[in-house]
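Need residues for this backbone.
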């Protein structure tokens, strides 16, 4: 038996880089999984050669898994980061949920591939990932968008959802996660956890009506023309900070082409949870001058001896560096949360439909 497999494998290896060949060999190999490779050096060599030939491919992950190979953690992690939303990427990260692997994962969360690492970890639905995700969620030095992904990953497993609820009840979950945690936990699969979540994180309101969950809002149909009216009507306040095609006040990002930058879900999030994704250059700064005045705004230019701050309302003020006593970047957006409270859920969806239709600045 073994000999025949070996022959199939050896023939395949003559052309190791053809993926069809690799597949044939893999099929043959699959039937050998679980075999003690150390007791069968010839097969071990075939397996290791095949592993090398399939570097960077799904087959690599399968071979490591099927033969319980050790010492390939770094490459598994790279594969997982490169495929955060597919099942083999998730498989790769799951193979790393042991002491050694978790160390690598924690280091990756502090490194340049943090976003992909957290995304794939959140997709793993693994209780072992819980402590890592919870720690990240609570770390306010990390970007809120990353921490929100960690929260949604936690809420997908029962242990993770419980950990989140326990942390929230004990006051150990920073308040800037309220939206993300509420949204994820109110939609969790377990009924009693859902009802605890609804008490801890009441759903955002739209004119006195509880907003449907995010996924439902994303799917609702809206009326573009009405959405334009909602955006510009005074109680919505949007136009006091945003311009669309020259209309409105130029303070926050111009929204004339926003429909090409953000999808419906991201548009909804930018209103329901403005702190989650602050575009570069629109961070909030608090300046204190030496004569005791304070100003909150966006820094639009700065040189060695001067700094310009744009204030809500669109006015810019130039400050001499020598006048400034202190400047602090705030972790929150100048766009206030809760603006949807002046509109019904349907009006909110109408406005999102309008914003999503804005693909290009018009002269
Ligand atoms: C007080 C000023 C202010 C008001 C009022 C305001 N925004 Fe904003 N908005 C900002 C700022 C500043 C940003 C950039 C920082 C951020 O994303 O939080 C922003 C970001 C956005 C973004 C994301 C833009 C991008 O390029 O990523 C959208 C969409 C948006 N606002 C829509 C709205 C809508 C719709 C309303 C009304 C319901 C509104 N804003 C009200 C100041 C405001």
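Answer:
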């Amino acid at each position: 038996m073994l000999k025949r497999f070996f022959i199939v494998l050896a023939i395949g290896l003559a052309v190791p880089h053809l993926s069809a060949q690799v597949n044939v060999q893999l099929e043959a190999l699959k039937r050998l999984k679980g075999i003690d490779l150390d007791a069968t050096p010839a097969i071990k060599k075939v397996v290791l050669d095949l592993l090398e030939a399939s570097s960077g491919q799904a087959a690599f992950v399968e071979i490591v898994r099927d033969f319980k190979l050790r010492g390939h953690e770094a490459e598994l992690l790279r594969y997982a980061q490169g495929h955060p939303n597919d099942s083999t990427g998730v498989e790769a990260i799951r193979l790393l949920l042991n002491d050694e692997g978790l160390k690598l994962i924690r280091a990756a969360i502090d490194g340049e591939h943090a976003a992909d690492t957290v995304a794939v970890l959140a997709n793993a639905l693994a209780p072992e990932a819980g402590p890592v995700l919870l720690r990240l969620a609570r770390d306010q030095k990390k970007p809120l968008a990353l921490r929100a992904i960690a929260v949604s990953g936690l809420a997908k497993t029962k242990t993770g959802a419980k950990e989140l609820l326990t942390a929230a009840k004990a006051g150990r979950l920073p308040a800037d996660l309220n939206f993300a945690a509420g949204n994820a936990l109110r939609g969790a699969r377990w009924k009693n956890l859902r009802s605890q979540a609804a008490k801890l994180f009441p759903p955002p309101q739209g004119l006195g009506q509880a907003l449907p969950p995010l996924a439902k809002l994303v799917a609702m149909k809206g009326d573009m023309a009405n959405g334009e009216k909602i955006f510009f009507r005074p109680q919505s306040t949007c136009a006091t900070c945003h311009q669309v095609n020259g209309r409105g006040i130029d303070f926050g990002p111009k929204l004339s082409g926003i429909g090409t930058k953000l999808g419906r879900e991201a548009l909804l999030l930018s209103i329901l949870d403005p702190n989650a994704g602050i575009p570069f250059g629109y961070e909030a700064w608090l300046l204190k001058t030496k004569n005791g005045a304070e100003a909150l705004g966006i820094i639009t230019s700065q040189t060695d001896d001067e700094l310009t701050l744009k204030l809500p309302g669109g006015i810019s003020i130039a400050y001499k560096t020598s006048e400034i006593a202190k400047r602090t970047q705030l972790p929150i957006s100048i766009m206030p949360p809760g603006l949807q409270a002046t509109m019904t859920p349907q009006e909110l969806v109408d406005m999102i439909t309008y914003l999503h239709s804005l693909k290009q600045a018009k002269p």
